[in-house]
């Protein structure tokens, strides 16, 4: 009976180690997923910031001035934002640099 008990104890120890390894793998996987999500978000924010500087010529504006500029146009942009599902397919593939805006009418 003591041999069976020892085998059970050894089996229990092996199973605990296996659980710990699997738990470590799970934590490692979650960390990797979170890291990838953070990188994707950072990349998206950098790209959007670059577009903001490009189209609003906001290179020399401070963060506060940029925020004020965006607040000025936020209501208009949000109320006139096109719904991609409602646009005809020809407009869905347009890129921002393909759209021309007559700046003489914009008031700037």
What does the model show?
With 108 residues, the protein is mainly α. Helix content is 70%, strand content 0%. The chain contains three helices and no strands. The protein is elongated, with a radius of gyration of 28 Å. It starts with a helix and ends in a 16-residue tail after the last helix.
**Number of DSSP-assigned strands:** 0
| Helical coverage, percent range | over 70%
Output the helix-strand order.
Answer: HHH
Rg from Cα? 28 Å
Helix/strand-derived category reads mainly alpha
Count of DSSP H/I helices = 3
Poorly predicted tracts of residues: none
* End-to-end C-alpha gap: 91 Å
**Mean pLDDT level:** 84
- Beta-strand percentage? under 5%
What's the overall geometry? elongated
Helix and strand arrangement:
Elements: H1 2-56, H2 63-79, H3 89-92
Keywords:
70% helix, mainly alpha, 3 helices, 0% strand, 108 residues
Offer a concise description of the structure.
This protein is mainly α. It contains 3 helices and no strands.
């Amino acid at each position: 009976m003591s041999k069976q008990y020892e085998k059970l104890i050894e089996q229990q120890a092996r199973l605990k180690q296996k659980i710990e390894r699997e738990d470590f793998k799970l934590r490692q996987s979650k960390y990797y997923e979170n890291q990838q999500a953070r990188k994707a978000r950072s990349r998206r924010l950098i790209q959007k910031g670059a577009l903001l500087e490009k189209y609003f010529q906001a290179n020399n504006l401070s963060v506060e001035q940029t925020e004020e500029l965006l607040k000025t146009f936020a209501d208009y942009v949000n109320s006139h934002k096109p719904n991609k599902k409602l646009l005809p397919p020809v407009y869905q593939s347009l890129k921002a640099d393909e759209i021309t805006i007559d700046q003489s009418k914009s008031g700037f």
